[in-house]
Amino acid sequence: MTQKLTILFDLDGTLVNTAPDLMHAHNYVMKKYGYEERDLSDIKKLAGRGSKVMLTKSMYEIAELSGKIKKTSDNVEEMTKDFINYYSKNILKDSTLKIGVLSFLNWCKKNSISMGVCTNKQEHLSIDLLKKIKIYDFFDYVAGGNTFEYNKPDPRHLTSTIEIIGGDSRKSIMIGDSETDSNSAKSANIPFILIKDGYTEKKTNEIYHDHLIKDYIGLEKIIEKYINDWI
Question: How many domains does the chain have?
Answer without folding.
Answer: 2
